[in-house]
Design a protein that fits this description.
Strand order of the largest sheet: 3-2-1-7-8-11-9-10
Strand content: 15-25%
Order of helices and strands: HHHEHEHEEEEHEHHEHHEEE
Structural class: alpha/beta
Number of strands: 11
Distance between the termini: 64 Å
Shape: globular
Number of domains: 2
Length: 283
């Protein structure tokens, strides 16, 4: 009985240590959030008070938002690879990245790419404790360069964070920042990523620029692609959504649109839908 009593004491004595470790981890996590938030947005003089308040609200909303879960499940249902490697291009605040990580077949890696400082800071915070996520602050294009990223402003002065874009559209008031661009093939080489299973692209009309920088990915790695194709946004780059659609078909991909039951209907030409899934014919 004496031995059992001692074992119990030893077991109980570990609890303060566990609480201490948990407390330290919590403090480190809070410090990281504080550094990311205050360093990049809340203490950044480029943003107005209204924009900073809106940023705090967006951060809290993003942490609770799970609306991409069903769409991501539909995308991943077309992938035959266990623990896939995923590239989230135009990751914004991280809703797709969060949903990919939450999938039953958890990805081995999600590379989340976002050029806007305003939303990238939120992306880093909400993914800081997610396994297998790498965040990179840059834009993807056909060349390595620096470009102007424009985020339209609402009448209130808040940023329209889902519409950040590069290109020639300067008709609206916008928050403008300089961002670096990389070719996607080169970035994958830098990241030592030799295989990609799924690519999601939402880059407000710059899709052709991304593809022009990724011939190896398109023709040799041949992942599944989920892409937003909207002609009025492609106009900012003198581009054509129909040409991008045809580029995938010519490269040996099949095209699908999402139906009301979250299944996929095959299509042969671009239509009224704005989001398309392209799968290599082997699938």
């Amino acid at each position: 009985m004496r031995g059992n009593f001692d074992d119990g004491d030893n077991h109980l004595s570990t609890w303060p240590v566990l609480y201490y470790i948990s407390g330290c981890n919590l403090i480190l996590s809070l410090c990281r959030v504080f550094f990311l938030a205050f360093g990049s947005v809340l203490l950044n003089k480029s943003y107005s008070v209204t924009q900073k308040i809106r940023w705090l609200g967006l951060l809290l909303k993003t942490k609770r938002n799970k609306r991409m879960i069903r769409l991501v499940a539909a995308i991943m249902s077309r992938c035959n690879t266990h623990s896939p490697v995923i590239i989230d291009i135009g990751a914004n605040v991280g809703l797709f990245t969060k949903a990919f990580v939450a999938a039953p077949d958890q990805p081995r890696l999600v590379l989340a790419i976002e050029p806007s400082n305003y939303v990238y800071s939120i992306l880093e915070i909400v993914t800081s404790n997610l396994p297998g996520v790498r965040c990179r602050k840059l834009a993807l294009s056909h060349e390595d360069a620096e470009v102007q990223l424009r985020t339209p402003l609402k009448q209130s002065g808040s940023l329209r964070v889902g519409l950040s874009h590069i290109g020639d559209d300067d008709s609206d008031a916008a928050f403008v920042e300089t961002v670096k661009t990389r070719r996607l093939d080169d970035l994958l080489c830098d990241e030592a990523i030799t295989n990609v299973d799924i690519v999601k692209i939402d880059v407000e009309g710059a899709e052709q620029f991304v593809l022009d920088g990724a011939p190896k990915l398109l023709h040799h790695m041949r992942p599944i692609w989920f892409i937003e194709l909207v002609q009025r946004r492609a106009d900012n780059f003198a581009g054509s959504a129909a040409d991008i659609f045809a580029q995938f078909i010519d490269a040996g991909y099949d095209a699908y649109v999402l139906n009301d039951g979250y299944g996929w209907d095959q299509v042969s030409v671009i239509g009224e839908a704005t989001d398309y899934l392209f799968t290599p014919t082997k699938y």
